Amino acid sequence: MCHTIRSILKQNTNLINQKLVVNGWVKHIRSNKLKKFVIINDGSTIRNLQIIVKNETRKLNRGTFLKVKGKIVLSKGKKQIIELLAKNIKIYGLFKEKDFQKTILQPKKHSFNKLRQQAYLRFRTNFFSSIMRVRHNVSYLIHKYFNKRGFYNIQTPIITNYDTEGYSKLFKVTTKYDFFGENAFLTVSGQLHGESAALGLGKIYTFGPTFRAENSNTPRHLAEFWMIEPEVAFFNLKHNMYLAEHFIKYIIKKIIKLSYDDLLFLDNKIFNNINLILNKEFKRITYSNAIKILSKNGYQIKWGKDLKSEHEKFLVENYFNSPIIIFDYPIDLKPFYMRINKDKKTVSAMDIIFPKIGEIIGGSQREERYKILLSQIKYFKLKKKDLEWYINTRKFGTVPHSGFGLGFDRLIQFITNMKNIREVIPFPRSPKNIYT
Amino acid sequence: MCHTIRSILKQNTNLINQKLVVNGWVKHIRSNKLKKFVIINDGSTIRNLQIIVKNETRKLNRGTFLKVKGKIVLSKGKKQIIELLAKNIKIYGLFKEKDFQKTILQPKKHSFNKLRQQAYLRFRTNFFSSIMRVRHNVSYLIHKYFNKRGFYNIQTPIITNYDTEGYSKLFKVTTKYDFFGENAFLTVSGQLHGESAALGLGKIYTFGPTFRAENSNTPRHLAEFWMIEPEVAFFNLKHNMYLAEHFIKYIIKKIIKLSYDDLLFLDNKIFNNINLILNKEFKRITYSNAIKILSKNGYQIKWGKDLKSEHEKFLVENYFNSPIIIFDYPIDLKPFYMRINKDKKTVSAMDIIFPKIGEIIGGSQREERYKILLSQIKYFKLKKKDLEWYINTRKFGTVPHSGFGLGFDRLIQFITNMKNIREVIPFPRSPKNIYT
Prior knowledge:
Strand content of chain A: 25-35%
Oligomer: homodimer
Distance between the termini of chain A: 31 Å
Strand order of the largest sheet of chain A: 6-10-11-16-15-14-13-12
Largest sheet of chain A: 8 strands, mixed
Helix content of chain A: 25-40%
Number of strands of chain A: 16
Largest interface: A-B, 108 and 108 residues
Radius of gyration of chain A: 26 Å
C-alpha cells in the first residue's frame, strides 16, 4: 500500500531520498517556467504535501486526484521541511475549473450553511475533515476507555415499541404490510434495554443512534444523533458521578494530544475551553441548594421548577466558575425510572453542566425496588403492559444500578467549539432537511 | 471500586489472604451443617467464584444479587483454586424461589426460543453472556484494526431519502406532521454516504445499524442488523480483496485468544471452523470460471444466473475446500454503482464465501467514471434526481475507490457457530417480533 501524507510528514527527514508513491488531490498550484509546485492532501491529516513537478504539460486542475511516484527531498521553500520530487504522475478524471468554481472546494470563505448544502463534498474541506478526524478519535477513545475498564458494548435496538422518555415526540416506523404487528418507533434512548444488559454483564455501554421528532430548529438539536449510555450494576449515584467525571476528563485530556493539529487549525481558543474542564473538580450541588443560591442572588425561581439555561449559566460561569453536577432533582422533573430518595420528594438524578454549552450529561441511579417502581409507573400514568419486561428485571432478582447518557455530537460540538451542531455530524437530520 | 470476578480469577493465588469486596448474583448453593457454598457470577467472565459462608441464617435464593466482603483463601475443593471466605454479606432485593422457577435462569436446558422470550434476562445465562462478551470483543477488534490503519469511523445517516439497493423493501419513517417534507426511510446501507467520506478522508469505515423490511423469517435474517462498511479511495478490486481477507483473518485470529474461555464454553467445535478460515488463502475465482466448474460438475447453471447456495457450497466445501472470493459478476446481478469491466459484461464485484454460512462479505470497486455511472443509472431505471449528490462526487473530482460490507451479526454467528442469528443480537427484530 501507499504512504499517507500523515505518515510521510511524521517520518519527516528520515525519508530523505526514499522513493515512494503517494495519492491525494490538488489543493493549490503555482508554477514558474521550470516547474510546478503542487500542494496535495489525502485526508489523513490537516497538513499538505508539496510536490515538485518538472516538464508537466498536462493540466493539473485544482480538486483533481493524483497518484504520484517520486523521491522525498529537503525543501528549498520555507513553508515545509520535506517535499516530493515527482518522477511520474497519474491523473484521475479531470475536474473542470468551471465546475470547481461551483463547489465549496473553491478556497474562499463559505458560510457553514453553504458547506452543508454540499455535505458530500464537505469531507474535502480543511474545516470539516478536521472535525471528522477529531470525531473519529473521540469515538475511538470512548471505546478504548470502556473496553479497558471491563465494560461491554451492547447494541440496543433502534426499532422499539415503547417511548422511554414519555414526553418525546417519536418517529414512527411503518411498512406497506403490517411487519411487526404492533406500533413501532425509532428509539429515543437505549437505556432501558441497557439496564437489563448491565444486570447480566455487570458493566455495559451503548454507542448508537437515537431519534427525536421534535420540531426544534436550533443550533443544539438534531433529529438523529448518537448517544453513549453506560450502565453499571451495583453503582449508586456517587459512583455514577465519579464515573461520569472521570470518563469525560479522560476523553478531553487525550483528545488534546491525539488531535492537536486539527484542534489548533479549527480554533486555538479550543484549548482554553478544554482546560476549564480539566483543571477543575466538578462541583457537586443538590438541586435544592442550587435553588437557594439562585434565590439569594436575585433569581425568581421556586423549588420544583426546571432550571433554565440562564440559571445554569449563572451557577457555572459566575457562582462556582467550574463545571457542576446538580443532583437530587424533584420527582416531577425527571422520568419514572429514577430512584426515589429518602425525602420522598426528590430522585437520585444528576446533570453535568458545562460552561457555554450547558447540560452535557444526564444520568441517575435507577429505581430498583419492585413496588416503588410500580407505583412510579402508576404515578406517571404510563402503560404498565408495555413496560412489563422492564418491571420484571426488578422482580427476577434486583440490585441498585446507575448510568448516564452523553450526546456524542454535543461532546464533539463542545470540543471543536462549533456554534451549530450540524457542523459536527456528516449528514445532519433536522426539520425539512434530509438531503444527501 | 470493587474487583470483578474476572480480575480476581486472573490474579489467582496472588490474592491469597487479601481482603476485598465482590459483587455478583447467586448461581448455585449447597450447604452442610457448618457452612454454605455459594457460587456467584458477575457477568465479567463465564467463570464463577465460590463463596464460603459460615453462620448465615438468612435465605440466599438463587438469582439474588449480593455484595460480599471477605478474604481470598486457597480452596479445599477440587473445582477451584481460590475462593472467598465471606465475612459480611449484603443481600439485595430477594428473588422468590417461586418466581425463579418461571424464568430462564433456572438451570435446565431451555430452548433458544424460550430464552428469547425473556430476552431481558438472557444476559444472565451462561450461553448468552458468553455471546455478548464475544460480540463486544469482536466489535472492539474491528475498531482497533481500522484505527491502527488510519481509517476514520464515520456515522452515516440512519434516516435517508433513498434506497441504495433498489430491490430492498424499506421501512418508512413518519411523524404526525410532515417532519422532513419528503419521503424518509431507514437506511439499508451506509455505503453511498461512506463513499463521499472516503473521497475526502481517504480511508473510512462505518459501523452502524441497517434495516431490511423483507418478510424473511429465516435463521439468517434480521430486520435490524449492524454493518461494517469500509471504503478506500485509490483502491481497486485487488486491493479490496486483500483488505477484506486480511481484515477478517485478523479478527478471527485475535478473537480466539481474547475470548478463549467463552468460545470453549459455547462449543469446542468452534475452533475447527475458525481454523478452516485461518489456514487457507482465500481462493480467488471469477464468476465465469465458477460457472464453468459448476457445469463440468453436473450443475445446470447458465452464465448470467445467480449462484444458489448449493453452488457456493459445492465450490467452497467440495471443489476448493477453502473460503473463496468470487469476482467479476455479470452486470445484471449487481447494483448500479459497481465498476464496469473492460468486457462490458461484468462488473468489479466480489463476494467472499465461507464454508457453512455462505456469503459473509460483499464488495466492489465503484464506478468512478461520470458518464458510465450516468448510463448505469439510466440502464437500471433509477431516479437520477435522488442520486444527484452521489453523481456529483464523480463530477467534482473523481478517483477509483472500493469498499465492502460485512454483516456484524453474521460474523458473530459464524464465530460462535450459532444456528440462528437471533441468538447473537441482544434484542432481535424480525417479522411480528418487536417485544422488549
